[in-house]
Amino acid sequence: MAMLKHLLGIEGLNPVTVTTLLDLAESYALLNRSGKTQRDLLRGRTLINLFFEDSTRTRTSFELAGKRLGADVLNMSVATSSVTKGETLLDTATTLNAMNCDLLVVRHNRSGAPALLAEKVGAAVINAGDGTHEHPTQALLDALTIRRNKGRISGLTIAICGDIAHSRVARSNILLLTMMGNFVRLIGPPTLLPSGIEAAGVELFHDMETGLKGADIVMMLRLQKERMTGGMVPSPREFFTYYGLDRAKLAYAKPDALVMHPGPMNRGVEIDSDIADDPARALIKEQVEMGVAVRMAVLDTLARG
Ligand code: NCD
User: What are the residues facing 187 on neighbouring strands?
Assistant: First the structure.
């Protein structure tokens, strides 16, 4: 595998790199289940979690991944940092650089912020979500979860539903899943589907009944109200009626279709609790578990590179 210096997006990766990362993550998933750790791998290395946007699962997942590999992990969140005192992104980068940080995990509300930092710091930079652009570790953990449950990560019909326009998770998943040879469908109201997205090799649908027909995987997304500029959706109740995943709509998909959601969920808006909490259909907890394994694989790979 070509040496990876940073992980800024799925864009730029190839199927071999993705498969190598998933295989390594699979071995970390087994290690995690056995309760063992591998604390010598990143001993003496420093990982900084630099989060300019709120996060619970992604930040704790990177923290746990770093600690399981023995790194010294530091969490910096914006509210308590000098950013609130007007320091620019690049000043922050210079400061972190002076601390000889090895791995820098960045979440930012602006698309491209991690790439900008990557040009300025010596550390390996991992994009933990930038604006509406990419969230590569989420796409990798989703791919690993699918592969474990369907036995493969190609030739599947995968429907991504809801607020695609604002979703970096959707963008990274579209890139990864089409690259690996799956049939990707996007389902949502026209206001929530980005214009020109067909060029990415996906099929668009505006209703769940036709869009879910024959789907192996149904991936639901959160309605990202904080990124919306006004009346893009009707009331949450109306959204649920047309696009919320409940038992009746799931029945349009294949009988063995499995359900995913990156979290955090808006129960009763994009997904019914009845489905979200059904261990026979929902992979949501396994996604969280695979998140730690995938991040261990990414940290391991970048630390070697
Ligand atoms: C997502 C994100 O922040 O992009 N959450 C996550 O990382 N699991 C999706 C979201 O916020 O809805």
Answer: 161, 205
pLDDT given for residue 92 in this prediction: 83
CA-222 nearest atom, ligand 1: 12
Please compute, for residue 200, the number of CA atoms within 13 A of its CA located in the half-sphere on the CB side: 24
pLDDT tens figures, 242-256: 999 999 999 999 999
Quick check: 229 pLDDT over 80? Answer: no
221 CA: nearest ligand 1 atom: 12
DSSP 62-75: HHHHHHHTT-EEEE
> The sheet that has 46-51: what strands, in order across it?
72-77, 46-51, 103-108, 124-130
Q: Which residues are bridge partners to 220 per DSSP?
A: 161
- What lies within 8 Å, CB to CB, of 163 at 6+ separation is 188, 192, 221, 222, 223, 224, 233, 270
SS3 224: coil
The whole-number pLDDT of residue 304 equals 86
CA of 138 to the centre of ligand 1 (A): 8
Q: Is the separation of the CB atoms in 113 and 179 below 8 Å?
A: no
